[in-house]
Design a protein that fits this description.
Helices cover 30% and strands 39% of the residues. With 132 residues, the chain is an alpha+beta fold. The protein has a five-stranded mixed barrel with strand order 1-2-3-5-4.
């Protein structure tokens, strides 16, 4: 026999209460900074990177910019999450321009694990493209 509506309501109430406690314990940070970016990316350690754009994927909520960066004498491949596809288009960054391998300087917040296998991953901010 399926559970009655009162049992389902009690279960939903318990789940909501638990989620509320988790949010309260986190100080609300998981919601304030765009869905918990501070849980995935090290928002206290910005890195400035300059490299060559090797690819681009327009997606929502975050477009992906693929960049080759020379770091510590080696070429590292980065996937940098940027703004929504609409914002990229409004900034005049066309597919033709992005596939022409322009140079970009960007502030990146690297993933907390710091692993660059197979690519480094980061959340980007303040993109500056070389527009000769």
């Amino acid at each position: 026999m399926p559970p009655g509506p009162e049992k389902s309501v009690r279960k939903l109430t318990r789940i909501c209460s638990y989620l509320g406690l988790v949010l309260l314990a986190s100080g609300g940070n998981a919601v304030e900074d765009g869905g918990g970016a501070n849980l995935i990316y090290d928002m206290d350690q910005p890195i400035s990177l300059t490299g060559t754009v090797t690819g681009y994927k327009a997606k929502d909520p975050h477009s992906e910019l693929y960049v080759e960066v020379k770091q510590e004498g080696h070429i590292k491949q980065w996937t940098i999450l940027g703004g929504a596809a609409g914002g990229i288009a409004r900034a005049g960054l066309t597919n033709a321009y992005l596939t022409s391998k322009p140079t970009v300087t960007v502030t990146v917040f690297q993933s907390r694990d710091g692993a660059c296998r197979p690519r480094c991953v980061g959340l980007g901010r303040d993109f500056k493209f070389d527009r000769e």
